[in-house]
Amino acid sequence: MLARLCRMIPALWLATAPLAQAAPSPGCPAGTLHLTLDTGNMRHAELIAGILAKYQVKATFFVAQEKTWRGDMALDPSWAEFWKARVAEGHSFGSHTWHHGSFRQDEADGRVLYRLMDGSQVQLDAGQICGELRRPDERFLALTGRALDALWRAPGGRTTPATLKAAQACGYRHVGWAPAGFLGDELPSEQYPNALLLQRALDKLRDGDIIMAHLGIWSRKDPFAPMFEPLIRGLKDKGFCFAPLGNTHGTHGTLR
Q1: In total, how many domains does the chain have?
Q2: 6 assigned to some structural domain
């Protein structure tokens, strides 16, 4: 698992060259960063939301119908108030697929092999891929009165040419992350303690980088979530500002 993640990060970066970089604004001498948060198990959703509000950071949330630590699902009506509050705060939102499956490979007949969380596999045509992206959009609109932005992220960042083509045809652009933006909150805490991950991010993040983390991870023993406060405070002290995705000029990561 760890080896696969390490191989994936440079691949995500190289898949698309960075877009042209805008000059930093006077109020942001170090530049602008784009914090993105995938649903995960939602255990630390309220904690992270409170930190974002405290430091007036606007993020981009990628939402999927994932099982949460409470035993419900992230886009169930039981989470409506949480999502409504984030909408009111002015964050951006994208699709993280409905089933949080993995797009494995393109098949000869044009369909895409899609591996579900229970290990089973199905083959999706372009219309079904579009449906995987639109279902979170439709549910989010029903919960909050706001549609998602025209953005999506494949679970694990794993895409295929046919998947990207189908997503683009139904209006969604894929968002990956910069190598330095991989905060590592899903890595084993024994090998990657919080202090190491925090310092790595503070040292390596640069203007335009897309940062990726989760609202909760099942496997990590020492959660990274409490590090969001020193991370954001440290980055602001260095002269960074934060902006949600939407206007993607000057961002570093995969935007396709």
Answers
A1: 1
A2: no
